[in-house]
Amino acid sequence: MKNLAKLKNFGGILCPLVVVGTIAVTAQAQSQTASGPIYAPNVTLDVQRNSGTCPQRIGLWWFALPYEGGAEHTVVADTRAFADTTKLVSANKQFVEFVSPLRRNYASCVGKTNGQEYDFYSVQFKNKKAYFRVDLQNINAPGRIITYQSVAASRPYVRWAIAD
Can you give the pTM of this predicted structure? Predict the structure, then answer.
């Protein structure tokens, strides 16, 4: 009986250690098999270069929270890949524009990103600046509105909603 009690106490100590070790190994294996960093943009827009040195693509972090009859969207453009600062220059309920002075290595860029799947997001490069726009005017839905715009971590930040 004493041996059974000792075995039970030993099992009570060993079992939690095995469980914690298994969880740790599984978590480590999952983090190593991830396809990329968690902080990478999840959407890219290809740049159509007309002249100069341009970035090949622009990254966007784009999140949507669906609800019955519509969705709220949040988008942040990764302008830090080619510019150090950004400021809001124009906004209304269906259009917002930000400008970012280009870094020296991209200052000669003339090009744009529109004409793609997400044509309500665009970046235009000209005059040593990049202009990031969110334009909801051509979306065919009665309820569309930009609810918030700002600059966060030197990047354009826009929240907008759409409803049927």
Answer: 0.76
